[in-house]
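BUG-255 | component: ligand-complex export | severity: low

The export step for magnesium ion jobs runs without errors, but we want the raw record kept on the ticket for reference. Input record follows.
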Amino acid sequence: MKHENIKYSILLDAAAKNVNPIEQISKNDKITLDEAYAIQKNSIATRLERGERLSGIKLGFTSKAKMEQMGVHDLIWGRLTDGMEIKNGGDLILNNFIHPRVEPEIAYLLEKDIAEPISEDNVFDYVSNVAAAIEIIDSRYKNFKFSLEDVIADNCSSSGYVIGDWKDFSIDVSNLQMKLQVDGKVVQSGNSSAILGNPLNSLLEAFRLANQYGVHLKKGMVILAGAATPAVFVKENNFVAVEVENLGRVSLNVK
Ligand code: OOG
Ligand code: MG
């Protein structure tokens, strides 16, 4: 890995750890997509060395609404760690975030280590559950602005997630109403079909990417399919809930 890229991976990790945003890489340097993913990997490796554990992966920009909000038009993926998980109904501590946003998502749970390519035919052997979820994204770049390469290097803004009660994977999630509420008011609403036509496509895409990039997905890990609507900034004392038709409700308190 290039010296400069190691430096960026350290800067991004420090920005998250110290809750202090940095300049976009693209302001000074032109990196390739491969370099951006290498920076992400190295940056997250530093977190893992501090004792966090890889808990899954997330996809981003799987809906038009998200692409348009952020001006980025390609599918991206990032790593989740156990340190990012907030229990359902738990607290998001604002001091630990730079400028957090929340978005409504669908999560999947793996019931077996992935040991072969996954398609619609064998996905039922590996995935047991699905749930409503909230993702907390928190760009490590100033003003939440980035290029495609910038956001990939920054682990796709991943910074937290909350999973609702797990439901059976056999539930059809291709066409479900999804609502994001803040303090009891609906602030975004959409449909799960906005996520690559069906969140299941996102799941299959996640398996393909994990395989391509050599990420070992294991039993108990989660996959976030990507938001169905634009994300919303939160502030102190907000109560955030996501409701997905047939999957129920998941929430957090901003403290
Ligand atoms: C990048 C992360 C995108 C999604 O669900 O589309 C994402 C960002 O918007 O900061 O997580
Ligand atoms: Mg997301």
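Assignee comment: Attached the raw record above. The CA atoms of residues 179 and 189 lie 4 Å apart.
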